[in-house]
Amino acid sequence: MAVETALHDGAASTSDEEDKASASPPSVWDQRPTKYKSVLWSVCGYVLLMELAERLSYYGINQGLKNFMQMKLGWSAVSANSLKSTWTSLVYMSPLMGAYIADEKWGRYPTITTFGMLYLVGDGLLAVAAHPSVLAHRDVAEGIFIFGLFGCIGLGTGAIKSNVITLGADQFNPTDASETHQKATFFSYFYWCINFGAAFAYGYLASLSVNGSSIVPVDLGYFACFAICTCVMALALLCLRLGRARYIQVPPSSDAMSQLVRVLWQRRTRNVAASRIVWGFGLFLLSFGLNIVAAVSVSGRVVLSLLAGVASSVAIVCWVVYGQRQIGDDDDDNVTHDNVIVDNVIVDNVSAKTSSSAREDTDAVQKVVRILPFAAFTIVWGCVSDQIDANFQSITQQCDLRLTATTQVPGAMLGIFDPLAIIVLIPVLESGVYPLYERITLSPPTAFGKTSAGLALAAFWMFYVGLFEIVRRRSGPVDGNARDAGSGSPMNNLHWAWNVPQYVGVALCECLINVTAYDIFYTEVPLHLKSTAQAINLFTVSMGSNFTSIFTLAFGQYIPNDLNVGHVEYMFFAVGTLALVNVAAYIVVMRRMQFGMSASGYGLVAASDDGTEERTLTASDISSDADRDTACSSDDDHPHSV
Questions:
Q1: Tell me: the pLDDT tens digits for 418-437?
Q2: Widest CA span of the chain, in angstroms?
Q3: N or C: which end of the chain has fewer CB within 10 A?
Q4: Where is region (Disordered) located (predicted)?
């Protein structure tokens, strides 16, 4: 009896210990000191205001770059367009650095504030470079301009881009149904804020840059524009700071982006898929490097740009083909018996605990690998989207921009129709079109459906713009040889308003593709890799801009400063053809993967651990990863943990 009692007590004690050990620590959302009825507005309102102000600053700089480089620094149209696209590539590539620092070192909020200050300095340097007294010394102005643009703004804005949206999305508890719904709305309003800021920049600031105002002389237009951008960026940082006490700050993990790099690098010698994915990253970086050299080269541009295009194309194929495969499967049949095999992950002479950790690492990275095919297909879309700031503007500036005999619409100002259309379209889609679609089909639109429609429309608009350019060129010059005030280019007899449909059309594509991509890149991956996933999303935008620069350089002989003696439509037809191939391949591959087909939420589907079945992601998938990171947050090696 005594023995039985002892055994019973021992079993009870063991059971209690197991219960304690298995009990999950409270999540970061449970530890929020104040519960808010509307996290979207009470907490994320500060993030949304910050994004609106920061985007106003960014697009205020962005809209004026082409004309500033041509009219103030004296560069050619090809050089200005190419360098602008290269800078855009840097802006969307540096989020990888920001994601690494945020996910592994500092956390999201400290990363945003630190690089936000660098961004602020860059805005100030551009204002200095644009002052007439500095422009009088061309070499000095160019040096300050290039350093501020690439060394400060390029790195600063890029490093915060992958973290602002993630910081906002982190505020919503994935186990709370109402907050999960608010999170989906947050992505739409986040994109709305981006475009509200852009609308002001392309509206007022575009006019101020070229024409000045009643209190700003024309020669101080760009200086005033860049100075306003500096002040607005300071306001953005202030908005973020005001909400600091309300934020959930997910602690950094000691092994986030490093985990992704390490697992892929280690698996590359045993798994073909891992090897080709690594190749893809390398080829993208090679393409970016070749394109930078081409942009600053006097000769050999076409050859270098073609090599860059080949490298990018092969990289896209690597991601699309091998992103569908399992990186945990070992391709080497000659494996020694000294190895331990755990769920297809080979671990050399290690403990079971280490084997389990290796399996978890591989499973986490597999979820990131699975989004790479989707990411690859958005690269060609990025090339289409980037045409608005690159070659659309060149076409617009050679239309009839006259309002009266003495006034005209700044060509860059027509870029306002893209963000204005988005401001209108997002509420229309969310409140009208999508609910109507659901009533008709009895199921919500899926991520696959939205993206397919967006990619198909993107191809259509490239052919439309190519045909539009032919009509514009054949319309002949306006009477009196009038010229655009911003670029000095001769204007033709086609009214500027005929440009509006292409801006609105591309805006619709953005609503269908970009908003969906935000949610996919956040929801599909573990919590500790969310900034990394957003950085990959932005990296593909960078590669899209890289493609734009490649096409611009490759077709440079058809894109003179005066488009009336060129054939820029050749480039648009080439991009349109590539976009058609892209959407066809997207439909085939996504159907094969069954990626984004579910009507639940955005229809995000995740592979099971063995890779043979599909299942819909649930809140518990994210929650369990949140618990994992919360448990890690107590470690002593996270100085920024909250």
A1: 888 998 999 899 888 989 99
A2: 113
A3: N
A4: 1-31, 610-642
The set of residues, in sequence order, having a beta carbon less than 8 Å from that of 385 and lying 6+ positions away, is 458, 506, 509, 510, 541, 544
Strands 339-342 vs 345-348: parallel, antiparallel or unpaired: antiparallel
d(CA 455, CA 447): 12
DSSP summary character for residue 219: G
Q: Which two tokens stand for residue 19?
A: 């219960």
On whether residue 130 sits in a domain, the answer given is: yes
Question: Which of helix, strand or coil describes residue 249?
Answer: coil
For residue range 440-478, what is the model confidence (pLDDT) as tens digits? 988 888 889 999 999 999 999 999 999 999 999 999 888
What's the CA gap between 382 and 380, in Å, rounded?
Answer: 5
User: Between helices 301-322 and 530-554, what is the axis angle to 10°?
Assistant: 140
Closest CA to 94 of 64, 118, 61, 59: 118
Query: In 297-323, which ranges are continuous DSSP H helix?
Result: 301-322
Q: What is the CA 268 to chain-centroid distance, rounded? A: 27
Phi and psi at 484, nearest 5°, equal: -65, 130
- All residues at 6 or more sequence positions from 196 whose CB lies less than 8 Å from its CB, including other chains: 52, 55, 419, 423
* Amino acid of residue 543: M
Q: How does residue 510 score in pLDDT terms, banded at 50, 70 and 90?
A: very high
Q: Are 209 and 63 in contact (CB under 8 A)?
A: yes
C-alpha–C-alpha distance, residues 371 and 238, integer Å: 35
Contact indicator for 220, 127 with CB cutoff of 8 Å: no
Q: What is the residue whose two structure tokens read 């514009």?
A: 472
Q: For residue 343, name the pLDDT band (cuts at 50, 70, 90).
A: very low
Task: Single out the residue of 371, 250, 362, 254 nearest to residue 623, CA to CA.
Answer: 250
Which CATH number is 119's domain given? 1.20.1250.20
Residue 609: pLDDT over 50: no
Residues 330/346, Cβ–Cβ less than 8 Å: yes
Q: Report CA dihedral (202, 204, 205, 209) to the nearest 10 degrees.
A: 110
Q: DSSP H helical segments within 524-593, as ranges?
A: 530-554, 569-593
Domain for residue 446, yes or no? yes
| Residue 343 located in a structural domain | no
Which residues partner with 492 through β-bridges?
Answer: 477
Helices 301-322 and 372-386 pack at an angle, to 10 degrees, of 150
How are beta strands 605-607 and 614-616 bridged, if at all?
antiparallel
Highest mean pLDDT among 210-214, 288-292, 354-358: 210-214
Domain count of the chain?
1
Tell me the whole-structure pTM to 2 decimals: 0.74
Q: Is residue 447 part of a domain?
A: yes
For residues 10 and 505, the model is more confident at: 505
Question: Which tokens go with 134?
Answer: 């500095």
Q: Is-contact 57 226, C-beta < 8 A?
A: no
